[in-house]
Amino acid sequence: MDLGLLHDLAQPNTTKIILCSLDGLGGLPRPGTGKSELETARLPNLHVLAKRSACGLLRHVGPGITPGSGPGHLGLFGYDPLQHPVGRGVLEALGIDFHLKPGDVAARGNFCTVDAQGRITDRRAGRLATDLCVKLCEKLRSVTVDFAEIVIEPVKEHRFVLVLRGEGLSGRVSETDPQTLGVPPLHARALDPSAERAAAAVNQFVERARPLLRDAAQANMVLLRGFDKQPDIPLFPGTFRLRAAAVAAYPMYRGLARLVGMDVLDTGPTFADEIATLERHWADFDFFFLHYKDTDKAGEDGDFDAKVAALERFDARLPDVLALGPDVLAVSGDHSTPSILAAHGWQPVPALVSSAYCGADHVSRFTERDCAGGALGILPAQDLMPLLMANGLRLAKYGA
Amino acid sequence: MDLGLLHDLAQPNTTKIILCSLDGLGGLPRPGTGKSELETARLPNLHVLAKRSACGLLRHVGPGITPGSGPGHLGLFGYDPLQHPVGRGVLEALGIDFHLKPGDVAARGNFCTVDAQGRITDRRAGRLATDLCVKLCEKLRSVTVDFAEIVIEPVKEHRFVLVLRGEGLSGRVSETDPQTLGVPPLHARALDPSAERAAAAVNQFVERARPLLRDAAQANMVLLRGFDKQPDIPLFPGTFRLRAAAVAAYPMYRGLARLVGMDVLDTGPTFADEIATLERHWADFDFFFLHYKDTDKAGEDGDFDAKVAALERFDARLPDVLALGPDVLAVSGDHSTPSILAAHGWQPVPALVSSAYCGADHVSRFTERDCAGGALGILPAQDLMPLLMANGLRLAKYGA
Prior knowledge:
Chain A is built from 14 helices and 13 strands. With 400 residues, chain A is of the alpha/beta class. Chain A folds into 2 domains: 3-85 and 232-391, Alkaline Phosphatase, subunit A (3-Layer(aba) Sandwich); 91-229, no CATH class. In chain A, strands 9-8-10-1-11-12-2-13 form an 8-stranded mixed β-sheet, with helices on both faces. In chain A, strands 3, 4, 5, 6 and 7 form a 5-stranded antiparallel β-sheet that branches. In chain A, helix 10 runs parallel beside helix 12. The A-B interface holds A 1-2, 5, 9, 356-357, 359-362, 373-377, 379, 383-391, 395-400 and B 28-29, 31, 34, 36, 57, 61-72, 81-82, 85-86, 88, 91-92, 338, 340-341, 343-348, 368-370, 372-373, 377-378.
């Protein structure tokens, strides 16, 4: 559905909407039992909720396409992820909750090792310790270049974020990482004329970083890739006419929510902290994006039992969410992370929508298999937001 | 599906198709029983028919979008309602079964009350009595303007339709209704250069109407909005190569059928009259659009029991429709009107398609919940017409 049309139809109301994203929610049956994580877990609260909800499966990008966290969440937020790609440099910045400003060009940086002739011998500098990465980033902050301010933030091990801040910069800059060993880093090139200042700034930065790193035997050079600007995306609160808040402990999801213009609330590291934050700000917003990370972590680790336990921990907290009395509650996820894959998967993700007007279906268990027969059908993730708006009586009729 | 492609594939046959639209068909469970109107009603004939039909749910505009009657029926007729918007003035004209001609510009008019300084004090003139509206419209018919013939038709209470008829008129004219009190009506402006003649005609009309209404204390001025022309829409009979007739007692649906070029048959006010009309013209057409209004009226009134009764009355007449032996029979609606909403809803609408070739599914009851699991899936309303054509063996193979 066109975001402009949704904006035209959006109307104020006092209803409250919670969108609960269980990261990596969907799973696959474990060989042996033939049951998925959702089918194995004891989830009394989710199943009772599913019984009075409309259920279905969300597909975030397209059939067979495995979404990253960026596209997965943009879909949940109502955007077509194929129309709003988020570059790698920007995602890296969002992943450390870095506050990108409009016009910033972000890149993913690696410390690497080069030999006496400047040829790369290790693209990740032996995955150097994070505290060393922090110290080297501190050094790089002294570099100045023409045309742009340089901002450097460490991420983890050999990874850091480079941000170019200034007027008239473009992200259309080629990578300096040749993605192979035995050759020197590449010069950055402008991929179109608008990027010449940015490319010059990148090359100056690399040349001025080199002498500063000379003594850091293991990490004596940098590689840069994934130059990009923030996507020019219609903001969520304006589009849907919602005061929207994100409750997310993990930086990546805070960053994605900030990208679309949500207020990102301060919260502690646990899901209990997140729920306390939700309760504290209940009066202040119309829409809450509530993120639960544990399901994805367990799935990525390939730990079926841990994912079952993470689902059960969520289920135990669900009554606290329901106690707030949201007019509309959706439970779904940004992608599946089947434990037997130990990675994100392309499988569509169970979803439920609960409200006084959600309608009924025959689904009484919140599982992949059951939700496939629900009233929502199998729908693109970006269709969820219009449904939540409608269930909150926040969309006017189309046409007389 | 592209209408041009459907036209290319359409081929003649002697099969007969009935599309039966139960206005506002879909509903929601009543709190207390947990059963929707369709689940509460005794519908022996519909359920038996559903058992030998392919069932599904129709979505008319998009997930979460509540369709008006115009978009709802255009979807049933095979058009994408987002690509063929129908303006408010045109719908108002269709709603009184006014025969718009190509090039006509229609607007919705309100009689309003203005004070001695010309400032609006009541935008609806106290919802004046319809017979007074008729008399005032009679007065306004004496107004003449440059560039256009003026046609005035009363609607109901304070509402009337203004039609500008003439060469080279455009509907891109701004509204004279300021939508607020304490200010005078606005001048009409051309929203693009092509609309200058129409805007001038509108302003002349308003200036010449003013003295005629001076003595009508309650309704001494007019407000005009929703200027629009008929959409330039490919006509239904040509597109599908069908002799198509509409059997509809209510003016709005007669108007919508005429908009797409169907023959609109004279019929009496009851559904029994409509069925008699259908029987009388059975030999003359290939396709019949049969409209049943009572379901929507009861739903709009928020009268659950009345909607149940309306469904049961339809069910009792269904054998008369089946007795005609249509090769293809579809039963669905233009939108849902859940009694608990007392308004149109966004919920997808049950649909069944019955023919010798419709295929089977597990659905044996014609309800929202059951149809969600049917062989048609949840499909855009405009996909119904190609299915009906195919079931009538009226579409050639695509590609060799």
